[in-house]
Amino acid sequence: MDVVSIWKAVSIALTGAFGILGLLTDFRDEDTDRLTRWGKVSLTGILLSTVLGVAFQLKESSDAQESQAKTSSQTLAIVQATQTTVTDVGRLLTPLSEPQVSVVMSASCRTGRFVKYCDVLKGMEAKVKTVNGRRALPSLHPKSELLAIELCFYKSRPTPQQVADCRYAYAGDLRYAALGVNDDRDRSLVLRLSRDREMLEIAVYGDGQFGTVSNGRLASTLDLPGSTLILLETSRGLEGLVPKVVHLRFGGGRVVEVDLTKMQRIEIAGQVAYSVEL
Predict the structure, then answer these.
(1) Are residues 121 and 205 located together in one domain of the fold?
(2) Residue 241 pLDDT more than 70?
(3) Average pLDDT, stretch 141-151?
(4) N or C: which end of the chain has fewer CB within 10 A?
């Protein structure tokens, strides 16, 4: 039993004892109506034990509040530590491993370097047979084109200098490259006409491990929300090209579909690029 509890019990006993003392002795002088010596002792004892009892009761309440606050703080710390552990385990279970990158962009069939492919595809389309009342849209895999799409990720909103540095291969907290090229071993650049025949759809498929750079700040799919993606092409830029789909697939079938509704057109070293917050 602690000191406070002992004193509370003692104060109750003393208050009762002094009260009994007042009953068993003459509390007031019958002639003068003043307190007798025993009356003064009894009253003083009752008041003193009562005051001290109240004081220790307040002390006990204060200690209880401090203990409750300490317990709440410890509980919060345990919950936060548990949440951190669960998050860390989740990050270990969802690594950004075995990346596959798919980027689809559109370009006008009226201007730019891709106009000639629109004419070729329209000519190919005229020779395609109609199936179930619809004419299939042909695709083209030109060997004369190379489109190297770079995906530069920053965990926090990048500074203007960091954005400018994206043209360098080492920049970014995480960086993937999708190399659109067609040769005897690889067919990762596909061109198709849009349904209205006014736009050219350009799809680039690549093994993101090619040219991958990471400093560890973005190591899991759980790290990507809130990060910033900068999409660029380091040789010619993306002038005349508008990204429509950015699709990332990782080991275990985990898929990240980038929402491009808030995409912004920017310039890096005089070349067109795009930025979007995930």
Answers:
(1) yes
(2) yes
(3) 83
(4) N
Q: What is the mean pLDDT of residues 82-95?
A: 70
Distance, in Å, from the CA atom of 257 to the CA atom of 260, rounded to the nearest integer, reads 9
Does residue 163 share a domain with residue 133? yes
Predicted structure pTM score: 0.66
pLDDT tens digits, one per residue of 156-178: 999 989 888 888 878 889 988 88
Q: Does one domain contain both 209 and 102?
A: yes
Residue 253 has a pLDDT of: 80
Instruction: Give 126's Cβ-side CA count (13 Å radius).
Output: 5
Domain span including residue 53: 3-92
**pLDDT at residue 16, as a whole number:** 64
Residues 119, 197, single domain; the answer is yes
Look up residue 71 and give its two tokens: 């317990």
- Tabulate helix, strand, coil % of the chain (nearest 5): 35, 30, 35
Both 108 and 62 in one domain: the answer is: no
Closest CA to 179 of 139, 213, 151: 151
Q: CA 7 to CA 13: how far, in whole Å?
A: 10
Confidence tier at 266 by pLDDT (50, 70, 90): very high
pLDDT in tens, 89-102: 767 778 888 888 88
Strand partners, 206: 101
Number of domains in the chain: 2
DSSP string computed for 71-117: HHHHHHHHHHHHHHHHHHHHHHHSB--S-EEEEEEEEESSSSTTHHH
Q: Please state, in angstroms and rounded to a whole number, the distance separating the CA atoms of residues 274 and 173.
A: 17
Question: How would you label 238-269 residue by residue, b for 16+ Cβ within 10 Å and e otherwise?
Answer: bebbebbebebbbeeebeeebeeeebeebebe
